[in-house]
Amino acid sequence: MLDDFLVRAGLGGLGVVLAAAPLGCFVVWRRMAYFGEATAHGAMLGVALSLAFEQSIFIGPLIVAVLMAWTVSLFSQRNYATDTILGVFAHSALALGLVVVSFISGVRIDLMAYLFGDILAVSGSDLAIIWGGVVLICGLMAWRWTPLLLATLNEELAYAAGIKPKREQLILTLSLGITVAVSIKVVGILLIAAMLIIPAAAARQLARTPEGMVALTAVIGAISVITGLSAAYRFDTPTAPSIVCVSLGLFCVFSILGALKHR
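Given the sequence above, the corresponding C-alpha cells read:
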C-alpha cells in the first residue's frame, strides 16, 4: 500500500470524501438524491464539450451542472414535475455526451475511466486540482453554512432572516458541480452520486447534530476509500466499485446500529 500510485489514489479519494461530506448531507436533508445523480450524468456532456474545445475536463462539467440547475428551475415553474425534468435532462445529457464523444477525432478516450473512474491513474496534477476543489468547497460551505442550513430547514424562516433560498440553492448547485468535476477521475460519473449519498445516509442513523453528521460522513467516506483500495489491491477487483461496496456495507452496519439505538 506504500506504492506511489496507491498513495496518490488514497490522497485523491480522501480529497473527494472531504468535498462530498457536507454536500452529501445537504443532498440527503433536501431530498436531492436524484438531482445529484442528474448532475453526475450531465457531467458526461461536460467532459465531451471540454474535449471537443480542448479545455480542461474540469471546466465542462461545472458549466453543465450550473446550466442544468438553471434549466430545471425554469421548467419547474411551468407546471413540470421536478423529478420528470431531472430524468429528461440527466439521461439526455449522458446520451448527448456519448454522441459528441463519438465525433471527436484525434483524441483517445477511455469511456470506462470517465464512467467508472480510474483512481489508480491519479497524477500529481490531478491531486492539485482535486485538493484545490476541496479547499474551494470547504471555504464555500464554511462561509454559507448557516444560511444554507436555515434555507434547508425552513424557507419562510430564511426569508424572515433576510436570506434568499434560491441564492443558497445556486451556491449548493455550484458546489455540487465542482465536486462532480473533481471526482470524475476518482470514482467516475456513474458512481459519484453513490459517494455523495451513501456515506451521508449512513451517518444520519447515528448523528445528533448537522455538524456531527458532516464529520461522521467524512469518517465513513475515508474508511470506505482506504478499505476499498486495500480490497481492490488484494483481490484484483475494480477500485471505484469496491469503494462504493464498502460504503454500502457501512451503511448496512449503521442502519442496524441506528435501529438498535431507537429501540
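The mean pLDDT is 85. Try to locate this feature in the C-alpha cell string yourself.
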